[in-house]
Amino acid sequence: MTRRFLFVLGSARRDGNTELLARKAAEQLPGDVEQQWISLAEHRLPDFEDLRHDSDHVRPAPDSTTGLLLDATLAATDIVIASPLYWYSVSGLTKRYLDYWSGWLRTPDVDFKATLAGRTLWGVTALAHEEAEVADPLIGTLNHSAAYMGMRFGGVLLGNGSAPGQVLRDTAALARAKTFFAQEAPLARFPYETPATV
Ligand SMILES: Cc1cc2nc3c(=O)[nH]c(=O)nc-3n(C[C@H](O)[C@H](O)[C@H](O)COP(=O)(O)O)c2cc1C
Fold this sequence. Notes:
Elements: E1 4-9, H1 17-26, E2 34-39, H2 65-75, E3 78-82, H3 92-104, H4 112-116, E4 120-127, H5 136-149, E5 152-160, H6 171-179
Parallel strand pairs: 1-2, 1-3, 3-4, 4-5
Helix pairs in contact: 1-6
Bound molecules: flavin mononucleotide.
Flavin mononucleotide binds near residues 127 and 164.
């Protein structure tokens, strides 16, 4: 299967550090890898409603924002959550997109979980804090979400910066970006599980 990367941009501003860092990493992808970039600020999902236990589940219209994101998610072999660090976790826009995954698990004729199983989740984030470990909650959110979905997890590319463009001064992050998507992405595991051997 040809690899197809979906970059889900979760910043509440344009041309921010997270997108810059994600684009640096994406530059290294081979030319035959398809890329789709979707800004959640430009494609606003409606408030998430928890209809999991209601009987009527309908597939969203393909020309709606929800349909666009569902179809893009299903078509991707690799999903890159490019979210700035907001209050030590993913941004609200990103969280809303992930909340929609819960609804899509029950969308008829989609088989969302089986489709995503074995595919790869990656993270890219920019943060103002110098100490990277404050991003652990974001990393945990993405790792655990991947584990729940039976996905592989490629880890999170972190870069430092506050004002837009500052991440380009983080030379260590730019160096990590060069090889980020070439890394192994093992099957994600919850912390209480034994590490995957494949
Ligand atoms: C609502 C909000 C919450 C933030 N929370 C954090 C935080 O918890 N830790 C941190 O280091 N930086 C925090 N920041 C700073 C951003 O992570 C930083 O400016 C980052 O570069 C923004 O990425 P962007 O340019 O892609 O939007 C926060 C910024 C905003 C707007």
